[in-house]
Amino acid sequence: MNKLDVDVAIIGTGTAGMTAYRAAKAQGASVVLIESGPYGTTCARVGCMPSKLLIAAAEAAHVMQSSAPFGVHAGEVRIDGRAVMDRVKRERDRFVGFVVEGVDATPDTDKLRGHARFTGPRTLVVDDHTEVCAGRIVIATGSTPTRLPQLENVGPGIVTSDDVFYWDELPRSVAVIGTGVIGLELGQALSRLGVRTRLIARGGSIAQITDPEVLRAASRVLNEELDIQFQTEVVGAVQDGDEVALTVRDALGKESTERFQFVLMAAGRRPNVHDIGLEHTGLERGPDGIPHFDTRTMQCGNSHIFIAGDANNERPLLHDAADHGKIAGDNAGRYPDVRPGLRRAAISVAFTEPNIATLGANYRSLCAGGKRKFAIGMVSFANQGRSRVMLQNKGMLRVYGEYGTRQFLGAEMIGPRAEHLAHTLSWAVQLCMTVDQMLEMPFYHPVIEEGVRTALRDLASNLTKGEGETDAADTEPGT
After folding, report:
1. Going by C-beta distance under 8 Å and a sequence separation of 6 or more, which residues neighbour residue 60?
2. For the chain, how far is it from start to end, CA to CA, in angstroms?
3. pLDDT band at 472, cuts 50/70/90?
4. Whole-number Å distance between alpha carbons of 49 and 354
5. Quick one: pLDDT at residue 457?
6. In 224-293, alpha helices (H)
7. Residue 479: its pLDDT value, please?
8. E strand or H helix at 187
9. Which of 92, 320, 325, 450 counts the most CB atoms within 10 A of its CB?
10. How many alpha carbons lie under 13 Å from residue 67 in its C-beta half-sphere?
């Protein structure tokens, strides 16, 4: 077996791993990258980029099919499923190619192919060909789609989100398991492209929403277009020819069976930390198998091991994976001089229509501890000027501010072009702006951002009311 001694070993060449590599090299460390799968990030290959390509096709179809209320009447809309998937795969491969070019530019001496497992706190075995002894190690092993035990070993009709982007043609029918970001994005896109689609949710959650009022609004809006079964449990499935007979149980215990060409498991992703020998590291781990780590430094306990990207499951999004990788790589490169790195305001977007977005502190986190120390402002997009002009007047925005300081804390929303509203508001969170400072900013007319101003005015009023109470912490937000 070959033996290799390096300052830093990085397991994984996704967004977090490659960013960590560049950061550690910049610190002057000798570094080796270890990869067992194909090069190319989750985002580029099976995540955010190909899903947006599918969504873009769905939006084009939807615009043509829904123009009549404007007095614009299109002819018969024909969706060529093979052409749709051909463009998705072709453009996806371009994005992957850009990533692979970066890996190819890395010196061959800095790369190892194979599956890495810890054999000790500082040693890794890569397949059966190389033993690596490293002064520091970065775990950047990414994630894989969560699989439901009751759907294992059924047949080719059971697929995950990774499989969708290798289809040659759009299917006839799909049951989508999960109403998280992945399930909703793919489910709505497939439905708009003419695929008979049903979404099935074990509970009542939608994407990343934690605010009960926004959740109610989102459920109402999405159910106007999509076939969603909440509070429904998957019992099992049987492959029958080229279809799957899927059996589910509703909240009342009634079972029903329906046939679909595919059953798509889209109930989230699972960090890849369960087959890398973490039991040999001496690290403390949580029930999910992820080592305890500091979100400011990515350091696992007080050890020489760092964890970044989807592997730590803190914020499994590309921009956060890049930040994780930079912090982990910097600290691994200059260890033991471990320092907190730049953590940006949280922001998450589901590219449904309307968009769903959260940023800063969410409702659930602000309610932790029992007493609410924040006020709420809101706006409905139902009669918001620009939204109504575009016939996209659906959804709600709720914004949060701290009593006393009047600092803007965060927001949750479902609404038109919320991806852009969320960016503007996340910058305000990161700059620690007060609600009053935000209201001093320019708002053009007519734009959707005027709805943000309405919500902020409501929040400012409720903050003032709360400050007049004996104990603002006991005041019901938004009243």
Report:
1. none
2. 69
3. very low
4. 19
5. 98
6. none
7. 33
8. helix 181-192
9. 325
10. 12
Q: Using only the alpha carbons of the chain, give its radius of gyration.
A: 24
Q: Residue 38: is it exposed, middle or buried by C-beta count within 10 angstroms (0-12/13-18/19+)?
A: exposed
Write down the residue that tokens 């589901």 correspond to.
350
By the 8 A CB rule, do 116 and 276 touch? yes
Cis peptide bond N-terminal to 446, omega within 30: yes
Tell me how far apart the 2 most distant CA atoms of the chain are, in Å. 73
The percent of residues above 70 in pLDDT, for the chain, comes to: 97
* Domains identified in the chain and CATH numbers: 2-145+270-334 (3.50.50.60), 149-267 (3.50.50.60), 347-469 (3.30.390.30)
Residue 405 corresponds to which amino acid?
T
45-102, pLDDT tens digit by residue?
A: 778 899 999 999 999 999 999 999 999 998 899 999 999 999 999 999 898 888 888 8
Give the pLDDT score at 469: 52
- Cα distances from 53 to residues 63, 189, 258, in angstroms, run 16, 10, 29
Per the CB < 8 A criterion, the answer to whether 213 and 400 are in contact is no
- Whether 300 and 121 have beta carbons less than 8 Å apart is answered as no
